[in-house]
Specification:
InterPro entries: CysQ (IPR006240), CysQ/Inositol_MonoPase (IPR050725), Inositol_monoP_metal-BS (IPR020583), Inositol_monophosphatase-like (IPR000760), Inositol_monophosphatase_CS (IPR020550)
CATH topology of the largest domain: Fructose-1,6-Bisphosphatase, Chain A, domain 1
Catalytic activity: adenosine 3',5'-bisphosphate + H2O = AMP + phosphate
EC number: 3.1.3.7
Strand content: 25-35%
Enzyme class: hydrolase
Radius of gyration: 17 Å
Pfam families: Inositol_P (PF00459)
Shape: globular
CATH class of the largest domain: Alpha Beta
Largest sheet: 7 strands, mixed
CATH architecture of the largest domain: 2-Layer Sandwich
Order of helices and strands: EEHEHEHEEEEEEHEHEEHEEEH
CATH superfamily of the largest domain: Fructose-1,6-Bisphosphatase, subunit A, domain 1
């Protein structure tokens, strides 16, 4: 079916599917955990003075990869994460087109469900060459090109949305570098799945995992997601 496309104040795309998906997810989570607030991309105007009081809350992107959704290429996802003390402790990423679901709980492993089958997943360590590198379908710039050139023998694999984290978690990809802004709802669920499978998502400037709801703005900095934490990622990002 067709859908309408509008633009938010920051000029990012908003389709007529975003808000209904937001409403369905928020309603379900509110019924499941009525005492926990829900922060969604479509409700991001909540004031910092309200958010800073939260210890536990749901962080949701009802349609991650809006550009991919508009292009009808299937590379979009639904992201739901439970944040506790700034850390994603439960995460679900669903690919609506295929029906595949990746889910994880911190300390309890990561899983991939397709149809009636569910399998535990782990990252590929150590990875074989060429490194399989997730390349964004919609975001590429000169800095990223320089980083990729430093990585040596690689195979670029086009992938959209949080599916990149999940593909690393299941061992079909190895690295996802992102030099450019993302929002907290873009990464939290995928980070949980990746970490539970043995990988890491690290801030490029500090080497620390992302924490959430620590500042007024809901934007992430540059990062690298790795299936194998031993990869020489600092050499790749130095000076960029």
């Amino acid at each position: 079916e067709g859908f309408d496309v509008a633009h938010k104040d920051d000029q990012s795309a908003l389709t007529s599917a975003d808000l209904p998906a937001h409403a369905v997810i928020v309603r379900g989570l509110s019924q499941l955990t009525p005492d926990l607030p829900v922060l969604s991309e479509e409700s991001a105007q909540l004031p910092w003075e309200t958010r800073r009081q939260w210890q536990d809350y749901w962080l949701v992107d009802p349609l991650d990869g809006t550009r991919e959704f508009i292009k009808r290429n299937g590379a979009f996802s639904v992201n739901i994460a439970l944040i506790r003390g700034g850390v994603p402790v439960f995460g679900v990423v669903q690919a609506p087109v295929t029906g595949i679901v990746w889910h994880a709980a911190r300390g309890d492993g990561a899983w991939r469900r397709e149809g009636g089958r569910e399998d535990a997943i782990i990252t590929r360590r150590p990875p074989a060459l060429p490194l399989r590198v997730a390349a964004s379908r919609s975001h590429r710039d000169a800095r990223t090109g320089e980083l990729l050139a430093r990585m040596g023998e690689i195979e670029l694999v086009a992938q959209g949305s949080s599916l990149k984290f999940c593909r690393i978690a299941e061992g079909t990809l190895d690295v996802y570098p992102r030099l450019g802004p993302t929002s907290e709802w873009d990464t939290a669920a995928g980070q949980c799945v990746l970490e539970a499978a043995g990988g890491v998502l690290l801030a490029a400037d500090t080497g620390e995992p992302f924490h959430y709801n620590r500042r007024p703005r809901l934007l992430n900095g540059d990062f690298v997601a790795l299936g194998d934490p031993a990869l020489p990622w600092r050499d790749w990002v130095a000076g960029l």
